[in-house]
Amino acid sequence: MKLKIEDVDNLCTGASFLGAGGGGDPYIGGLMVKQALADGARIDIVDPDIIDDDSLIIPTAMMGAPTVLLEKIPSGEEAIRALRAVETQLGRTADATMPTEVGGINSTIPLFVAAKLGIPVVDADGQGRAFPELQMETFAINGIKGTPLGISDEKGDVATVLTGDNHRMEKIARGITIRFGGTAYFANYPMSGADVKRTAVKHTLSLARSIGEIILMSRQRKMDPFEELETFLPTTSYSVARRIFEGKVVDVDRKTEGGFTLGNVTIRQHDRRSDCIISFQNENLVARSGEAVLAIVPDIIAVLDAETALPITNETLRYGQRVIVMAVGVPEVMRTPDALQQFGPSAFGLPDVFVPLS
Amino acid sequence: MKVGVDVGGTNTDAVIIGESGVISWKKTPTTEDVYSGIVTAISDAIEAGDVDIGKIDCVMIGTTQFTNAVIERRALLPVGIVRLALPAASAIPPLTDWPVDLVEVIGSNVHQVGGGYEFDGQEIAPLDELAVAEAGRSMRRSGIETAAVTSVFAPINRAMEDRAAEILRNEVPDIRISLSSDLGQFGLLPRENSTIINASLSALASRVVDAFKRALRNLGLDVPLFISQNDGTLMRADAVERYPVLTFASGPTNSMRGAVHLAGITDAMVVDIGGTTSDIGMLRNGFPRQSTHFVDVGGVKTNFRMPDILAVGLGGGSLVRDGGDRVGPDSVGYQLTKRAVCFGGDTITATDIAVAGGWADVGDASLVKSISRDIIARARERMREILDVNVERMKTEAGDLPLLVVGGGSILVDWPVRSVSNVVRPDYSSVANAVGAAIAQVSGECERVLSITETNRNSILDDARDEARQNAIDAGALPESIEIIEVEQIPISYLPGNPTRLRVKAVGDLPV
Question: Which residue of chain B has the CA closest to A171?
């Protein structure tokens, strides 16, 4: 599939939806991709099922503070240098790149890299949504080594991280990001085409594009975007999508701790009969109503504008918004016991047991 | 006494306000030269109120001239654009995502040079002074008269922008320069966009301010002149010559502020009902709540502050259909006085419902007798529902607030609104806009990124308050009248040391 300029807004909107309240606003990344396409670049998104088993795929992404990104926009060379650093370690060039995280801004970085390098992007990722840390990947769960990791900034600084432990990789890269000025661009989890087929969450870029198209086009087509999403998502590997709550935001409680934005948002039903409280750590973790758990990580909890169905990130949540909360069951590959250990409720310090959305 | 003037696209309103409130007012059509419309409106208002001209202390003008110029691509200058950011930010050059026709006007004199800051104030790279000088020479060669300079994280440190301006002036001595650090907040692209538009408006700004000053001279008014900015406060006329972009969208702010003054209420929901739409906003401490989103002007995302306003399709000219179950969003608009039934037309409008229902008195009530009780009741219920739901949507606080109804279409409302405690329709609400200009205060702001801890929190807040206060004094406020009206703290995630974006705003009265 060749990515067109008209696809970019759809893809970014769908990526925000899959960001589950976090993931960073894809606005800057979307502009970079549009600019590259306007300059005549070509971006091919390829189906993971048809890539060569022995091809080399090197995923690319950004990490750090979304707020810094809005001010310090990248040069565009950062992620490419990071990818080159991994190639140097492996002594081999990449045949394609791929997102590590489809939710939020990181859906767009590999598209830009692909445009600049003239290589395709694999239609898959390692999170199927957004998560805050680099070890929270289906790649890691299925035995792919996170390193060599290449990481770079706009000044041309490059670091290569080699470690056998993906948690250490996260910790070291996070420290480097601070020294790079709050944002950094990286390449990690280099793998073969066969490994992509075995470990990735597949077809997530085209999924993001379709979700965005439903959200942005439904009104024009006189359709209800919420119904459309509930009908469409079960036709993908995301088993189920359901509106779990509707109401008005009556409280947003936010604080920063250990570099993360933690907090709770309270949504009240219009007849005031019940409340839904969503707890988040950058991304939404759990939605509760009274004692009942309505949905819990790794399933996706998306807060959507009740009128437009546009996703609302936790940074832009505020009192008075009328919202519909939609939960989406993630693919089986993200619900295995190993996966839950990496990014299930306990990985975020929640006492609850994972109950899949049904 | 103060004179407030609103120069709109259609009408120029003038209102004279004394200690006890509105003395007199006048509405006249806006003229092509702006100037004569202002002269007519003010002199007619002076005459109507039998006002002693020597007792007038100052004149405040609100205008949509600059917004309209951008929307209509009129009177804009080509701009020399300098971004201090390399090696960062080159993935998205200036003017990316701008409408093509506007880029054609603004031109292609674009320079990305070395410089800019990190979030903690360190340099991304030293300022590339040679490249800035070369940019200046290129502007001189191309006959460029105005430049826009934007540095990464300029709101934290403006030194590089100031130095770049100095270098440009060396190369092109009479160039007008707009700096992004004067235009506020974080977000490189929207701030840069505002700076470029500001630069592009600089010639028009001189002409418009000159026309305002001439109007005052012609009237024999030798008093200070202030112009409204979008946050509801005033700037001196000479500041508008440098920062015309700050006047964008001052209209909605002025009408909301005018409503506050006329009703004597500082915390309320406001609806300004026009011919086609109703603008709904919220007032806290007498000021409109600001939007958190990028505001689009003529297709460009800017960073300027604007009230958070929801426009809904309910106005005096809204079409009434389906036996009253459908009201708006289409409207007969400016043709109301031709097409509405109460004015002898054949289209049932929201105004006709109000007249037929007996709670408004415009046009000829005998013409609307054919409208059935049932249609009136249904349409009235539908209008009420529209306001109910949308006022509730714009309310960001629990608890009851009153609803202030202003604007020409305020006659539509005679019914209670469920989402508010009571409905207030103040006198003179059709010139709320000019009243808002007349009663405005001046403001000062301070915005920073800081590491806030339990121990340093108080001293940091004190510093920020002092800086905002000083900025308000510099803008002309009486020191003893200054109040801090806003303190906003937003944590920045994924960074150590709890860095927080802090914004403080102070307002004060002008000496009269």
Answer: B494
Range of the domain at A343: 235-348
Note the pLDDT tens digit of each residue in B162-200. 999 999 999 999 999 999 998 877 889 999 999 999 999
Which residues in B lie closer than 8 A to residue A65 (C-beta atoms)? 119, 492-495
Nearest to A320 among B97, B396, B498 (CB): B396
Q: How many domains does chain A have?
A: 2
Residues whose CB is less than 8 angstroms from the CB of residue B454 and which lie 6 or more positions away in sequence, other chains included: none
Q: What is the pTM of this model?
A: 0.85
Domain hosting residue B166, numbered range: 80-200
Residues 175-234 of chain B with CB under 8 A from chain A are 186-189
Chain A residues within an 8 Å CB radius of B502: none
Q: Flag if B496 and A178 touch (Cβ within 8 Å).
A: yes
Bridge-based pairing of strands B80-86 and B110-114 is parallel
For the cut 90, the answer to whether the pLDDT of residue B121 exceeds it is no
Residue A258 is predicted with a pLDDT of: 67
Answer yes or no: do A243 and A186 share one domain: no
CATH number for the domain that contains residue A318 = 2.40.390.10
Which two three-digit tokens encode residue B320? 């009434």
A 10 A CB-CB count for A55 gives 17
Closest Cα in chain A, distance from residue B250 (Å): 24
Q: Are strands B403-406 and B268-273 parallel, antiparallel or unpaired?
A: parallel
**Whole-complex ipTM:** 0.88
Between CA A249 and CA A335, with CA A282 as vertex, the angle to 5 degrees is: 105
